[in-house]
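Tokens for chain A. Residues wanted.
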């Protein structure tokens, strides 16, 4: 202890205290104020009291967290439950909204063709693995009156046909498949042709009109609908729009690229036409 009072550190502390006292005395004398011993002590001890109060507040907050941890945990769980309930309600709302949109589309389809016999809207239950032509399954089958080779549609247009039908499920072959040929016609020009699916050079499935003569009257922008011959499809159903005419290598014929009326990547549900005017029972070619 004696060494401390003789040390340089002690002398520095004394010097700082003396400096602080001198500054305060100078300020008081210059300002014409009197200063009491109590005020001087309060002034000198203010930094220590401020630090002590800060530590006290932090300790009090920490102890409050410890003592109310269970209450905070329960409140947190309650808020989590409320958020979960709100998310479920939002999901239910979106589901109801989707179902109402589907029913609206279904009503629109029936109004356009009141003599057709339709199934209720059917959800897509899955896509066929490794099929580039986007064949899919739906959750209705023979128990719902579905048979092989029934047309499958949405309000936007033709999708394809049913091929494999079980009691409660059906597989749908789309227009993108080369195994499905559709007779089409342009309502404005009455030009007709056969549309098939194929794989383009990029490996993507598309549709085109094949074997068009060199003097074809088809034009880019023509809207195409089903012709209705053969009894497989009803007439007048939207199929797609011509986007490009490509001459063959010998320029003796043309191929017309067709953008389908339906976006096959955004399908969620479809409707099957069980019967329509002019339908004939036939096997797939």
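Reply:
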């Amino acid at each position: 202890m004696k060494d401390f009072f003789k040390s340089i550190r002690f002398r520095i502390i004394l010097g700082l205290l003396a400096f602080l006292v001198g500054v305060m005395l100078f300020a008081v004398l210059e300002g014409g104020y009197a200063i009491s011993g109590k005020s001087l002590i309060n002034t000198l001890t203010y930094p220590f009291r401020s630090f002590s109060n800060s530590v006290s507040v932090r300790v009090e907050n920490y102890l409050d967290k410890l003592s109310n941890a269970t209450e905070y945990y329960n409140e947190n769980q309650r808020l989590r439950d409320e958020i979960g309930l709100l998310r479920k309600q939002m999901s239910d709302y979106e589901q109801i909204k989707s179902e109402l949109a589907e029913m609206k589309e279904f009503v629109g389809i029936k109004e356009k063709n009141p003599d057709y016999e339709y199934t209720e809207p059917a959800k897509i239950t899955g896509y066929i693995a490794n099929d580039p032509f986007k064949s899919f399954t739906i959750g209705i089958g023979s128990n719902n009156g579905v048979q092989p080779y029934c047309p499958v549609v949405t309000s936007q247009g033709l999708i394809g046909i049913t091929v494999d039908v079980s009691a409660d499920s059906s597989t749908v072959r789309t227009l993108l498949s080369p195994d499905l040929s559709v007779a089409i016609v342009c309502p404005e020009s009455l030009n007709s042709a056969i549309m098939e699916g194929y794989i383009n050079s990029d490996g993507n499935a598309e549709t085109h009109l094949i074997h068009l003569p060199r003097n074809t009257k088809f034009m880019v922008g023509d809207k195409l609908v089903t012709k209705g011959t053969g009894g497989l499809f009803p007439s007048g159903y939207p199929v797609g729009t011509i986007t490009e005419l490509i001459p063959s290598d010998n320029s003796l014929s043309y191929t017309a690229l067709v953008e389908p009326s339906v976006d096959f990547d955004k399908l969620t549900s479809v409707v099957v036409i069980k019967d329509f005017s002019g339908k004939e029972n036939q096997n797939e070619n």
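The chain is about 35% helix and 25% strand. The longest strand covers residues 238-247.
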